[in-house]
Amino acid sequence: MGTPWLAQPVKLHSSRKYKCSVDTLEQCAWQRGYWRFWYEADHRFALPIVAFFLTPILLFMMGYLLTLMAPRTVSQSRPVKQLRALSRFCSYRTFRFGSLDWYSAPVGVLGLGAIGTTLFFCMTLAPRPFYWPNTRTLNYGGSPPIATRTGWMSIACIPFVFATAAKSNWITLVTGVSHERLQVFHRWISYAMHHFGIQPPHNSHVHLSELIQNSTIAYETSKATHYIAALVFMVFFFLHCNFRMSSWDYFIATGILFATSSLHRLVQALIPYGFNQRATISLTDNGFVSLEVLTKGEWDAGQHYFVRLLELQPWTAHPFSVSSLPKKSETEQHSAHNRLVFLIQPRGGFTAQLAKIARADPTRRTMRVILDGPYGGINMKQFTEIKRLVVVAGGSGVGWVLPLITAFQRRRTDPDEEQATMRVILAVRDVQTEHWVGDRVSTAQSVDAACPSRIAVEIYNTGSCQDTVERAAQDSGGEKERDEGSKGIQLGSLLTVSPDYELFKARPDLPSIVAREAASAGSTPLGVFVCGPASMQYDISKEVARQQLVAAKTGSGDIYLHVEHFQWT
């Protein structure tokens, strides 16, 4: 039985055989012009788009392989350090639009977006004509040339839309760029596919829901409808293409990418974790929700999982950073399960429900959980090789810092790590979190206590006491600030000095702190790791980017920055 919505017989590719239907040879030759020939339109317009997307992927892949395999003499040479500083500047520098409270993508990403926009506009508007000069006696064809070329450009985008959307994907595998950092490309490629391809109106809902997902308005609802609309769009787009030339090849490529990604996620979740894991839910002293899972799985510092609680919201999975590390020694690994801990700050929706459950059942209630991960994380090669580290966190990001402290303490047992130092700066907003963080930091620093710690921890309470401190600073006539480079922190604002941490009642001046650390490091590599609100990320990224320009000019200095985003889609 045939399929009435597809041409018969159904094939993989339609014929490219051309038969001139106009009056003169000159008209036939004009119709077969390079940018006008309908039977070669997929080669003229789709393949250049594929090449454009593959070019940066290949360049980043080569750079990634060089960072993994290049000998130290090469990686530390002056030209390489200057080139690395410039590339890092492009990766770190962002812009803030204060009136909108909006932060741009990094300069390098904006540059790629500008190049892509120029390419799409040129390939759409430069070739002529936009429409066939048909008359009553002359007919070049029914499909306008501008629709043909933008349609093929849209088809070429499909595999890359899916490749950049998947949590487990080939781009991350070959470039080392984590999936959450590819989401901006997923959105932009989708916009190009929609606006240049002149797709059906219902596809606008897909992009509207993307914009909603990028905020916090009705996130879960928009996410679900996004998937449904995308599925409907793909089905009808597949039928619309009707196996013309190589159109279905792009759907096959998309299917392969989607299938391998889904299979890898399934295997990654099934083998180490299975579907019978249980999470223990409790409330910490400062009101954070603690999810604890005993598992044989392993992960690295800074990674996150997508957590699905089957008894609460089985249809949604939420990303949470891990606040613990697996056991270190082989004896420990085989003797007991690893404690996978998530520390979650309740806000609204799902996290508020978790907090309500934890308060209602103080006996540590358990729920069945499905874990999808781990994903992302810091570059452990950089973390272990760099001898001077600065770790900054704010809000719920303080839980993200704890495994980094533990990982640093573990590397201190190596005799070659005797000179390694870590400076930890934590910003909290209330006294309860202040005390809780202090206790957690003390516990994290107690790992391998026989080895002397070289960790300096500073906790800044930026809550209600901040205004008092700032007013006291104004009344004192501008006393000399502490040499720590923390704006508004006077000599008297250092409230507590314990063996494990210092406590301040003020807001840290993060750009000054980073600048001073960079100046003190000199030619020694410096690693900066950040997890916090967008304003915190922006301040540090901007200063590190400025330091990269200095390093690019002088050829000295080596600053690595890792930014862990609070939220993304």
UniProtKB/TrEMBL annotation:
Listed A to Z, the keywords are: Electron transport, Ion transport, Membrane, Oxidoreductase, Transmembrane, Transmembrane helix, Transport
Q: Where is the FAD-binding FR-type domain?
A: 270-381
GO BP annotation list: copper ion import; intracellular iron ion homeostasis; iron ion transport
Q: List where in the cell it is found.
A: Membrane
Extract the InterPro entries matched here.
Answer: FAD-bd_8, FAD-bd_FR_type, Fe3_Rdtase_TM_dom, Fe_red_NAD-bd_6, Ferric/Cupric_Reductase, FNR_nucleotide-bd
The primary location reported for this protein is: membrane
Question: A Gene Ontology molecular-function term?
Answer: ferric-chelate reductase activity
User: Keyword Oxidoreductase on this protein?
Assistant: yes
Q: Does the keyword Transmembrane helix apply?
A: yes
One GO CC term, this protein: plasma membrane
**Pfam families assigned to the protein according to its UniProt record, in alphabetical order:** FAD_binding_8, Ferric_reduct, NAD_binding_6
**Origin superkingdom:** Eukaryota
Bilayer topology:
Multi-pass membrane protein
State the family named in the UniProt similarity comment for this chain: Belongs to the ferric reductase (FRE) family.
What is the protein name stated in its UniProt record? Answer: FAD-binding FR-type domain-containing protein
Give the organism, scientific name: Elasticomyces elasticus
